[in-house]
Structures are given as structure tokens and as C-alpha cells.
Design a protein that fits this description.
Keywords: Signal. The structure is a single chain. The protein has one domain. It is of the alpha+beta class. The protein is built from two helices and eleven strands, in the order H-E-E-E-E-E-E-E-E-E-H-E-E. Strands 1, 2, 3, 4, 5, 6, 7, 8, 9, 10 and 11 form an eleven-stranded antiparallel β-sheet that branches.
């Protein structure tokens, strides 16, 4: 076989393998990663009091220097198959108010998640994606002052192929990782203005799909 024939054969083999990866990847079902970055039970907290005008504010959580290890792919995954779509889901089990609004805080309130941003980083760089889910959580006051139960609503944001690929690179290469979640919220009760609010995360998960 001459050099040209060898080159053509090699290119054909590479194309066939790439095609195999797409075909095999199409049969890989979505994979769920539970409790990513140890988010279960962590709190997203506002760094300042909620403001009037539709009672708005932001809440956030960060690993704050507490790193977590890279994800190790199984060595026997064929054709270097990787996911190219990512969905982050989470709910809240409890909300806590603190501040000047406690004496007039309502028995119930509806809080809308106007935006949600998820970011991961390591020594080599960072990746993030955000969306405006518009998810509404109903808060119902419990016995303890300032403590509210939260409805079983689930917020969901999705990343496209480019953002998913960037996330996978950060989480599988470059060493220890950090993560943060930030949300912009509004509430339907003006009486919440003047308080800070914290949400305890429940059932966080990442769903990986579109393997190829």
C-alpha cells in the first residue's frame, strides 16, 4: 500500500470511528449526577436586605475555597464519548427570614426565581451558564419565627453544547474545583422588604445527555 493509500485508509478509519462514537452515544441514556458539589442542605443567602419595588434581591452560595475533586470518567468508555447537554435541577426545603420585616412578615408569599447562574472553576479557568427559569416557589410560615416551608417546585436551567463542553473540561481536568450558584428573586409581598432571606437547597442534580 503506497503512502497516499495509507493516508486515505487512515482518514476513512478516523471518520468511521467518529461516526461510531455518534451512533453509540445516541444509545446512551441521560445520566444523573446527584448532589453536585455537595449542594444538598447548603443555603443560598442574600447579602443585603430585600428591596421594595416588587421586593427584589439576590441570593447565592459558594464553596468559598472548599474544593471538590475532578470527576473521573470510566477508562472503558468507548470512542471518547462525552455529554454535550447539561441540565441543573434543584428545589428548596426551607426559607428563613431575618431582619426588620419579621414583625409584619406574611403567613404566605410567592417567590419567583427570575434568573439562576451556575459557575464552576479550577486553576485552569472557569465555566458558567445562566437562564431565566421564572419558577415560582410558595412559602408558608412555620411555627418558628422567620421560618417558612417551601413548595415542592423544581427549578431547572439548561446549558447548550458549548457551555456543557466547557463545564466538562473544568470538572474533569485541571485539579480541584470550586462552584457557586447565584439567583435573582422577586416576592409578591411588600412586607418582606427589609429582611434578608436564605433558602436551603433540596435534591440538587445535574442531568447529562446528548452523548457522542
Amino acid at each position: 500500500m503506497n503512502k497516499l493509500s495509507q493516508t486515505v485508509a487512515l482518514l476513512s478509519l478516523m471518520a468511521a470511528l467518529a461516526s461510531c462514537g455518534k451512533v453509540v452515544g445516541a444509545f446512551v441514556p441521560p445520566q444523573t449526577v446527584t448532589n453536585p458539589a455537595g449542594l444538598e442542605g447548603k443555603t443560598l443567602t442574600s447579602d443585603s436586605a430585600l428591596q421594595p419595588a416588587a421586593v427584589k434581591g439576590s441570593v447565592s452560595y459558594s464553596t468559598r475555597g472548599e474544593t471538590f475533586a475532578d470527576i473521573a470518567y470510566p477508562k472503558d468508555v468507548p470512542f471518547d464519548i462525552r455529554p454535550h447537554a447539561l441540565e441543573f435541577q434543584a428545589g428548596f426545603s426551607e426559607a428563613t427570614l431575618a431582619g426588620t420585616c419579621l414583625l409584619t412578615a406574611p403567613a404566605t408569599a410567592a417567590v419567583t426565581l427570575k434568573s439562576l447562574k451556575v459557575e464552576v472553576s479550577d486553576a485552569s479557568g472557569k465555566a458558567m451558564f445562566s437562564a431565566a427559569p421564572g419558577t415560582v416557589f410558595t412559602l408558608t410560615r412555620q411555627g418558628a419565627t422567620g421560618t417558612y416551608a417551601v413548595s415542592d417546585t423544581v427549578a431547572s436551567v439548561k446549558a447548550g453544547a458549548a457551555d456543557t463542553d466547557a463545564f466538562i473540561r473544568v470538572l474533569t481536568q485541571g485539579g480541584p474545583n470550586q462552584a457557586s450558584v447565584t439567583a435573582e428573586i422577586t416576592a409578591d409581598k411588600d412586607s418582606l422588604a427589609g429582611c434578608t432571606i436564605s433558602f436551603k437547597v433540596k435534591n440538587p442534580k445535574v442531568i447529562l445527555s446528548d452523548f457522542s
